[in-house]
Amino acid sequence: MALSIAEREAFLAEPHIGSLAVARPDADRAPLVVPIWYVYQPGGDLWVVTAVDSVKARLLAGAGRFSLLAERVTPTIRYVSVEGAIVSTAPTTKDEMRTVAARYLPPAALEAYLELSAREYGPQQTVRMRPEHWLSADLGSI
Description:
Layout: H1 5-13, E1 18-22, E2 32-36, E3 38-40, E4 46-51, H2 55-63, E5 65-72, E6 78-91, H3 94-104, H4 107-120, E7 124-138
Antiparallel strand pairs: 1-2, 1-5, 3-4, 4-7, 5-6, 6-7
Helix pairs in contact: 3-4
């Protein structure tokens, strides 16, 4: 059964690992699909952080849009998929990095991760997408 607008937005706002998909320009290649941390608040833009020099960043810049799937399998199978245009790309701030990492890591691991990220991952960028198209379902009722 499809989720209501409020249900799908609330589900997407939970800290699921997303699957980001972005088109490749090569005719002989399928879209790039990678797991990613993301941030979303109901009614707002969805955003992700990625290395400035990554394949993902290059493809996002070229495509101008992407899709993201969030799913769970317990207590019921539920998913939300959103697709939309990129509305901004900017250098990631320390506050943005802290926000996204805090969604996924236990508090005791946060500072160590932020230090590791700053030291090892290079410059990051925040890519914001405005959801335009949604698909959703909860298969718990069947």
